[in-house]
Amino acid sequence: MPLDVPVLPTPSGLTLRPWRLTDLPLVREASADPYIPLISTVPVPYTEAEGEAFVRRQWQRASSGAGYPFVIETPDARPVGTIGLWLKDLSQGRASLGYWLTPPARGHGAAASALTTVTTWALHTLRIPRLELHVEPWNTPSLRTAEHAGFHREGLLRGWQQVGAERRDMYVYGLLRADVTPQADPH
Questions:
Q1: Under a CB-based contact definition with an 8 Å cutoff, are residues 96 and 134 in contact?
Q2: What distances in angstroms separate CA 87 from CA 21, 112, 123, 128, one per listed residue?
Q3: Is 124 exposed, middle or buried (0-12, 13-18, 19+ CB in 10 A)?
Q4: At 73, is the secondary structure helix, strand, or coil?
Q5: Please, what is the angle between helix 24-31 and helix 48-63, to 10°?
Q6: How far apart are CA 34 and CA 139, in angstroms?
Q7: Would you say the pTM of this structure is higher than 0.85?
Q8: 70 phi and psi, to 5 degrees?
Q9: CATH homologous superfamily of domain 8-179?
Q10: What would the pLDDT profile of 74-106 be if each residue is shown by its tens digit?
Q11: What DSSP string runs through 81-133?
C-alpha cells in the first residue's frame, strides 16, 4: 500500500519532509562522508544519475509501503540529513528507524529532534507498538541521540550487520508505545 510521507515540524524548528530531486546536493555531500555510504544506499562515487536514482529509491520505499523516508531540513530550508521509519516488521508489531546527518550538521541536536518527532508520530499517530534502532557500539553521538529520544539499550547483537567489508556488532535500542505517556499530537 502506498504511503504518503507527511511534512512534520519539529519543536526545534527543523522540518521533516519527503525527498525531492532538488536534494541532490545533500546526496552528493553524504557520498563524500566516509561512513554514510557504508550504512545506507548513498552512492559512491557520486554522479548526478546515481544521485537521482537514490532519490527515486526513497520515493519507491514510500510507494511500495516499505517505509517513510524523510529529509531533515533546517529553518532556512537547507537539507542536512535523513531519517527513515521502516515498516518491514510491522506485521510483527514493530518498526525500525535509521538516520544520518552530513558532517556540518552534526552535534547541534538535529538528529535528536528528528528522532523524537518521528518517534512521537510513529507511536501516537501510526500506533506502532514497538520501535527499534541499531547502533554500532563506537558511535557515541548516535547512542546519545537514541537515549535522548527515550530509547532503551536492550542488548548487543554480535555480528548483526554487514557494514562495508565486515560484519559488525550493533546495540539494539527499543521503545514501546507503553513506555511513553500519550501526548496531544498536532499531526
A1: yes
A2: 24, 21, 13, 10
A3: middle
A4: strand
A5: 110
A6: 14
A7: yes
A8: -115, 145
A9: Gcn5-related N-acetyltransferase (GNAT) (3.40.630.30)
A10: 999 999 999 999 999 999 999 999 999 999 999
A11: EEEEEE-TTGGGTEEEEEEEE-GGGTTSSHHHHHHHHHHHIIIIIS--SEEEE
Considering all CA atoms of the chain, what is the largest pairwise distance in Å, rounded to the nearest integer? 45
Question: What's the CA gap between 30 and 24, in Å, rounded?
Answer: 10
* C-alpha cell belonging to residue 166: 565486515
- Which residue has 525527498 as its cell numbers? 19
- Where along the chain do its domains lie? 8-179
CA–CA separation, 177 and 150 (whole Å): 11
Tell me if 119 sits within 8 A of 149, measured CB to CB. yes
C-alpha atoms less than 13 angstroms from C-alpha of 96 in its C-beta half-sphere: 10
Q: Write the pLDDT tens digit of every residue in 119-178.
A: 999 999 999 999 999 999 999 999 999 999 999 999 999 989 888 888 999 999 999 998
